[in-house]
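[Q] Does anyone have a clean structure-token version of this?
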Amino acid sequence: MKKTLIIATAITSVLISGCASQPLSTFETFHPHELTGLVASGQYVQKTDNFFVLNDSSSSMAEHYHGVGYPAQPTATKLAVEKEILNRINLTIPDLKLTSSIRSFGFGPCLDWGFTRLNQAPTPYSKSTFGSGVDSLTCASGGSPMVSGIEASSEDLSTMTGNIAVLILSDGHELNSDPAASVLSLKKQYGDRLCVYTVWVGNDEERSGQTVLNNLSGISGCGFSVTAEQIFTSNSMAKFVQSVFLKPGKPVADCSTQDDDGDGINNCIDKCPITPKGAHVNQFGCWIVDVKFDNDKSDIKPVYYEELDNAVMVINHNPGVRIEVQGHTSSTGTAAYNQRLSERRAQAVKGYLSRAHAKGTLTARGYGLTRPIDTNDTEAGRANNRRVQLEELE
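[A] Here you go.
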């Protein structure tokens, strides 16, 4: 009997509200605040894996919204403001791997003549797919069976793994029944994985509805409530999205300000990050002995003895060091030829260092053309790649 009365009342409300004639509103362009950088830097990390929206599409949401922050032509309805809030959230969410879903509650043709409608089933989040789900909220009609929406969401959430953020948008006004027990049941089912957030989209005469929404977020123990007016700026919206989706993380250090091996080359561009102290390095932070060989030769000219003697001094100032003498070439010639050439030159430099009484453990290895440190498209780049490199082994 009660259900029949609710349906009859809802149908009457639909006829009165005239949901089919609800106009579309055009809002001022929203410029979102960038949050992706906070995630990329490690300053914040993702805390929410699933984003579930429960939207009030009852007849009261077809009324004009009188609050500030959402100027539109023509004057926006509360439903239009709900959709605008969801669109702004969508624009502000940083690059995250999420599952999103949207369900509405009300009654009548706007909800396929049911008390609740799954507008978008749980699906991998993207701005375009979520935006399509928001667009499916075309009109508002009927009573306010929020309980039906919450109870149906219990099954929607059953496929989700990880942490869940449930976002309820409503004026909280003249609900068919108190939804607190349903939210409590949902919380018991999903435990600490679930947090409830609410956005009150109402007018001054509906302030009692704000109290209802505040109570719902309080039940979850980890959510909070805001009003539409509190999140209309790009900055306040960014803070809201950040609070729902992110938590503080350990910032990733700026490599351009770090030089772990103290060779004067910052960590961002240092391709040899454990160079012994005192070693002569090139622009890439690698310990290069500046020895040039004649074509197809591996004998060391006397002009380079001073450079190699400095390498011996560095090795002897780092007791117990293990050094690999590496021969490298450019890409000119065949790979087989360059491999043999690199091996001969590495052995030649190792031999000199050993005879000069380098106290470290020395090994020689040729890498041929396989480890360029610069481009092979220019003569200068090829010259950088034709090198004998000393690398400390861990």
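[Q] Thanks! Anything notable?
[A] The two ends are 80 Å apart (CA to CA).
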